[in-house]
Write a structure and sequence with these properties.
alpha/beta; seven-stranded mixed sheet; 7 strands; 34% helix
Length: 263
């Protein structure tokens, strides 16, 4: 992933993700924020929480060589399937392409749900398989599967599995998350050359208007909802009580009429 991000297409994707992540996390408040994976992207730089950390998955190849990573702010190495945090201890978790590279993306998402506080937020960034970039990647895998042009590399990073936008939303809903915002981007053609990539710059504006769900990348912001409990008493305490009949009180006029009546 790191080597691919150094390509023209990788830099173009990184710029789009950085710009929109800055807008997404700028107004999220709390105390503890965590970014897991992709140290080339500073996803928390626009956030104002006092405690912000960057973590990488220690099981990824090359993760043990911290000196080779582009940022020196890496706080810890962890296992995405078992996050070393207490339950309900974080306010924000950012997953830039983390689920695509995780061994068990659903388990990683469950761990994120566990460590988030109620009303905490998770931001997920990923490649969109329903795009021109995703189509070229599938054709490249098919080409390698039949043994054609094996020396030609794939357009996107070969490791990991793309997670569709709709599938991700279903997973979030199953884990009691409520999707607050979602956005697609990077509509240019899947070309390798910097020159041709710049020639396709007009497709960004047209893509957002005419084919918005076919962008090469997407990000989703979801909030963790916890249903409140309502403590009720015994059933007999909830039964409506019968209204007591009021006492009949004779008025002064009625008493005088009774005195006038013959015995």
């Amino acid at each position: 992933m790191a080597s691919w991000l150094a390509t023209p297409a990788g830099r173009y994707l990184l710029q789009w993700e950085q710009r929109h992540l800055d807008l997404a996390v700028a107004d999220l408040f709390g105390f503890h924020a965590l970014q897991i994976g992709l140290p080339e992207l500073d996803a928390l730089r626009a956030n104002r929480m006092p405690h912000r950390w960057l973590a990488i998955d220690g099981s990824e190849p090359g993760a043990e060589g911290d000196a080779a990573l582009p940022r020196a702010a890496i706080a810890l190495q962890l296992d995405c399937d078992a996050l070393p945090f207490d339950s309900a201890s974080l306010d924000l978790v950012v997953l830039p392409h983390t689920l695509e590279l995780a061994h068990d993306p659903h388990q990683t998402l469950r761990e994120v749900e566990r460590v988030l506080r109620p009303e905490g937020r998770v931001v997920v960034v990923g490649f969109n398989p329903a795009s021109l970039w995703g189509l070229r990647q599938r054709l490249g895998r098919l080409r390698l599967g039949v043994g054609i042009a094996r020396r030609r590399p794939l357009f996107l990073p070969p490791s990991g599995e793309f997670l569709g936008y709709r599938r991700l939303r279903d997973w979030l809903q199953l884990l009691s998350f409520e999707v607050e915002a979602g956005r697609f981007g990077c509509y240019r053609l899947p070309v390798v050359s910097e020159r041709w990539l710049q020639r396709c710059a007009w497709m960004d504006g047209h893509g957002e208007r005419w084919w918005p769900v076919f962008g090469a990348a997407y990000f989703v912001v979801a909030v963790k909802r916890v249903r409140g409990m309502r403590i009720v008493g015994l059933v007999r305490d909830q039964q409506p009580q019968r209204a007591k009949a009021g006492a009949v009180v004779a008025t002064h006029k009625q008493r005088r009429e009774r005195e006038k009546e013959p015995a």
